[in-house]
Amino acid sequence: MNPTPSCVLIVDDEPDLRELLQLTLLKMGLQVLAAANVADACRLLARERCDLVLTDMRLPDGEGLQVVQYIQQQQLDIPVAVITAYGSTENAVAAMKAGAFDYLAKPLSLAALRALVKSALQVREPAPAAGGEPRLLGGAAAMRDVRTMIDKLARTQAAVHISGESGTGKEQAARQIHEQSARASQPFVAVNCGAIPETLMESEFFGYRKGAFTGADADRDGFFQLAHGGTLFLDEVADLPLAMQVKLLRAIQEKKVRRLGAAQEEAVDVRLVSATHRDLVQLVEQGRFRQDLYYRLNVIGLAMPPLRELRDDLPQFVARLLQRFSAGSEQPQLDEAALQALLGYHYPGNFRELENILERAVALASDGRIRAGDLQLGASGAEAALPGAQPQDGGETLQDYLDRVERAAIDKALQASDGNRTQAARLLGVSFRSLRYRLERLGMK
Ligand SMILES: Nc1ncnc2c1ncn2[C@@H]1O[C@H](COP(=O)(O)OP(=O)(O)OP(=O)(O)O)[C@@H](O)[C@H]1O
């Protein structure tokens, strides 16, 4: 028995475009309904079963955005994609923020249309069950909010920007969004934007043709081609040089890239997720990050809470990690002082730092016990626990206070490592890049 074909509602007042869309969708074996304005679209939505809506933005009696809003208000749970005029970034962004699943820019590419329809219709199938341990542990309210948001994000194609301090699980969140999305069976490509030499960026992102430059002895795919159909995760996106930001913006807007040495552009279908621990808004204000790219990447924002906001979860995290790091051997027990030290620590390097501390402690533990000394807590947490480190009366702002604590922690780590930054970063439980950034921010060069 054949399942009932999915039904797509097209909302467009241009008869030619409506017909083109209709024919394309019918050829894909789908049922099609059509409306020429907002009012007819809402009437049809109220009456008919519908699995996807494609709506033009400009309609005779209103905007496509109203169709998106109607679907949201009525809680119809139907993905809706908007068709926007060439180059109208604001419209596409507004529609995605209002809950649209994706957008198509005019002139329409039928290949892009077919790809969008396929992934939109898959979204309605239940997400695959996550196997094994969840990527993001934690039951505190802040982490529950993150999970709820991830569930929502997995149901749209909107570009997501994940903010949060170093080690808060931004990459894990990005992977989780991908794994819960309709793109789960397609590639997830993670790129550390700060780790690619500037001269290689274009070829790494967009690929190249054989002979494009000396040494290019075969065609090679770039990140965009590798992530085709799936998700492209741009980590440390703030590190992209301005020239590359322009090229990236263009690729995102056009949904097309051109390999080095190629005459033609090729269509790419990627969902973008980006992350940075830096303050992108501030970088935009300073002219170091393009505002238009920021809007494109940050259609929906996801903020990862620092570990110090998940204090209630700490005992659970500690127990899980001890179990993980002592797999295959006897699990050492924390003595009371060690437990108290862990619970009172500040964790500037967040979850990653906690992992490092416990992995090291398991290795150092003797006679099945972990003592406070085995934890080798970084200086910052201890500093934060000292009475003298409390915010001072007389108007010291929270930021000044935190900067002071951070500066002291970094100083101590640098002293302990004889000025070796790589080692200091390890002691602090942060990446080298993160330490370099902090040194710069605090004027500690
Ligand atoms: N809530 C969590 N539950 C379990 N593990 C977590 C959680 N948050 C982070 N981790 C772990 O912490 C480590 C760092 O996570 P991840 O790389 O995702 O952080 P990040 O924010 O992307 O870091 P960076 O800013 O340095 O790139 C990983 O090993 C990850 O598994």
CATH topology of the largest domain: Rossmann fold
The CATH superfamily of the largest domain appears as P-loop containing nucleotide triphosphate hydrolases
Radius of gyration: 25 Å
The CATH architecture name of the largest domain reads 3-Layer(aba) Sandwich
Account of the protein in words:
The modification 4-aspartylphosphate is found at residue 56. This is Sigma-54 dependent transcriptional regulator. Keywords: ATP-binding, Nucleotide-binding, Phosphoprotein, Transcription, Transcription regulation. Residues 7-121 form the Response regulatory domain. The protein has 445 residues and is of the alpha/beta class. It folds into 3 domains: 7-123, Rossmann fold (3-Layer(aba) Sandwich); 141-303, P-loop containing nucleotide triphosphate hydrolases (Rossmann fold), CATH 3.40.50; 308-441, Helicase, Ruva Protein, domain 3 (Orthogonal Bundle), CATH 1.10.8.60. The protein is built from 20 helices and 16 strands. It has helices at 15-27, 38-47, 64-73, 89-97, 110-123, 141-153, 170-180, 201-206, 223-226, 242-254, 280-285, 291-297, 314-325, 336-344, 350-364, 372-375, 379-385, 398-416, 421-428, 432-441, and strands at 7-11, 31-35, 52-56, 58-59, 62-63, 80-84, 102-105, 160-163, 188-192, 231-235, 256-257, 266-267, 271-276, 300-303, 333-334, 369-370. The strands form 5 sheets. Strands 2-1-3-6-7 form a 5-stranded parallel beta sheet, sandwiched between helices. A 5-stranded parallel beta sheet has the order 9-10-13-8-14. Strand 11 (256-257) and strand 12 (266-267) form a beta hairpin. The longest helix is centred in the C-terminal third of the chain and has 19 residues, at 398-416. The site of adenosine-5'-triphosphate has 18 residues, from helix 7 and helix 15.
